[in-house]
Amino acid sequence: MNPPNLSESIPHLLELHRLKNQTVQLGAWPVRVSEHLRFVGILEGKFNWQIEGVPYILYPNDVVVLCPWHRIGNETATLEIGSFIEIALQTNKLEFEGSLQLGAWSALAEIDQRIIGKLLSNGPLVISHFKTLNELLQTIESEAKNGAFGHQTRINQVIDQLFIETVRQLSQQQSQRRDFSQAFGELEKMLRDSLDHPWTVEEMATIVGMSTTAFTEKVKSYSGFSPINYLINIRIAEAMRQIRQTDKSLTDIALDMGFYSSQHFSTTFKKLTGYTPGQYRKAPRPPERE
Fold first, then answer.
1. Cα separation of 38 and 36, whole Å?
2. Domain edges within the chain
3. pTM score, two decimals?
4. Fold agreement between 6-177 and 178-285
């Protein structure tokens, strides 16, 4: 059951409950659609669940993160002996392709929410042996139950921390499972999708699942550039395309590429191309190949 007045004090926390099952129950856990953004943390026992058609065996400290369209349950609808805790959250926006807006209650930056949305769009997240998330879920439960001063603020902070720890853990797991070229390719796609964002090396390193120092060294050895200079090259390449292929003003292009001023854009552009943006727009185009 939800704690009293939960819907009034924390309306975006749609569900919060702990289920403790002491006997096997038939027909109690059919496969069903999650309907909301949901965290499920296993506390005790062993559960055989099907998540988006894939069978999983879940043990204590395993955590599942589901989007509203994901399906979860037992293929035979059997609820096994054990206990778990789960919360369901209301979001302003959560779409299949990865767009996520948590709402005014969250202190997470827009780019952080975008990263979370991209991870969620890759499918349900099943994180093994991650005690930290279970402890955070139990903190939310405790704060909601006690209703002490500031519990709404504290719960919102802990929910944000849930997302932060989830992203960090997944980044580490992904970096262990794949080579750097694949991770770097995915990062570059994210950079190109958000060129106007003031990217930091710390943000880029987090997405790849590496420390800032290790990430910087890896990017230099992989590309010959520092992470920031690599980003600048991407921005200038896209600016060159837009200058030649669109009618957008140079100021708009500069802002869309993440430059804080037209002068900064012009100086950087000339340093890398030999032209100012205005000169490049007027320069003769090379003949097209037949």
1. 6
2. 6-177, 178-285
3. 0.67
4. no
Of the chain, the end-to-end C-alpha distance in Å amounts to 71
For residues 39 and 125, is the Cβ–Cβ distance under 8 A? no
Cβ–Cβ < 8 Å for 92, 101: yes
Least confident range from 44-53, 174-183, 274-283: namely: 174-183
CATH of 178-285 among 1.10.760.10, 2.40.50.140, 1.10.10.60, 3.80.10.10 = 1.10.10.60
Would you state the CATH architecture of domain 6-177? Sandwich (2.60)
